[in-house]
Amino acid sequence: MNNPAVQPPASAYFITPERETVVARTLAILVDNEPGVLARVIGMFSGRGYNIESLTVSETEHEKHLSRITVVTRGAPHVIEQLKSQLDRIVPVHRVVDLTTNTGDTGEGRPIERELAIIKVAGQGEKRVEALRLADVFRAKVVDSSIEHFVFEITGRPTKLDKFVSLMAPLGVVEICRTGVAALSRGKAGM
Question: Does residue 117 sit in the same domain as residue 170?
Answer without folding.
Answer: yes
